[in-house]
Amino acid sequence: MTTETIYNRIRVSDDLLTGGQPTEAELRAAAAEGVRTVINLATHDPQRSLPDEAGLVRSLGLSYHHIPVDWGTPTEADFDAFDRLMQSLPPGKLLIHCAANFRVTTFYALYALRRLGWSKAQADAFRARIWQGSNYPIWEAFYARLKARLTDHTDTPAPGGRSQRRE
């Protein structure tokens, strides 16, 4: 098993993977491939989530962070929590996931726009890899609102922000 099988997986860089809900075997593969930190943006769903993802991840020696973003009501506070967490992480391989990589690609695109110097076109292209053809008005409005907020003023990458090159 490898991380290649994670649903809607995107390798952003050598140190960053995004994807949908990984299986137990995929989390074990992530640890074997050198992932040091897992961030989960999905809410707990007994039908889709692992019974004790936090316990499993920690038993593999990895750091685990959970920011449960409600699918029907994403908030700026959710994004701000993600932004703060990303800035506080130590160097090392990172896996960010949710249920299907929709929340993650939105949050990471906004983060990269704010902290990594990505252009609007780069952020939109990254997000479109998962969102192309989807129709979720709440998320489109959320993304447009935050993107406007983040680009209406000069925002320079913060010291200590995680630099990620795109492949």
List keywords for this structure.
five-stranded mixed β-sheet, alpha/beta, Protein-Tyrosine Phosphatase, Chain A, 167 residues
Name of the CATH homologous superfamily: Protein tyrosine phosphatase superfamily
What count of helical segments does DSSP give?
6
CATH topology value = Protein-Tyrosine Phosphatase, Chain A
- Report how far apart the termini are: 23 Å
Which spans of ≥5 residues are poorly predicted at pLDDT below 50? 154-160, 162-167
Number of strands: 5
Can you describe this structure in just a few lines?
The protein has 167 residues and is an alpha/beta fold.
Topology:
Elements lengths: L9 E4 L2 E4 L4 H9 L2 E6 L12 H7 L3 E4 L9 H13 L4 E5 L4 H14 L4 H12 L5 H15 L16
Parallel strand pairs: 2-5, 3-4, 3-5
Antiparallel strand pairs: 1-2
Helix pairs in contact: 4-5, 4-6
Structure overview:
This protein is α/β, with parallel strands linked by helices and 167 residues long. It has a single domain, classed as Alpha-Beta Complex (Protein-Tyrosine Phosphatase, Chain A), CATH 3.90.190.10. Helices cover 42% and strands 14% of the residues. The chain is built from six helices and five strands, in the order E-E-H-E-H-E-H-E-H-H-H. The chain has helices spanning 24-32, 53-59, 76-88, 102-115, 120-131, 137-151, and strands spanning 10-13, 16-19, 35-40, 63-66, 93-97. A five-stranded mixed sheet has the order 1-2-5-3-4, with helices on both faces. A hairpin with a 2-residue loop joins strand 1 and strand 2. Helix 4 (102-115) runs antiparallel to helix 5 (120-131) and helix 4 packs parallel to helix 6 (137-151). The longest helix has 15 residues, at 137-151.
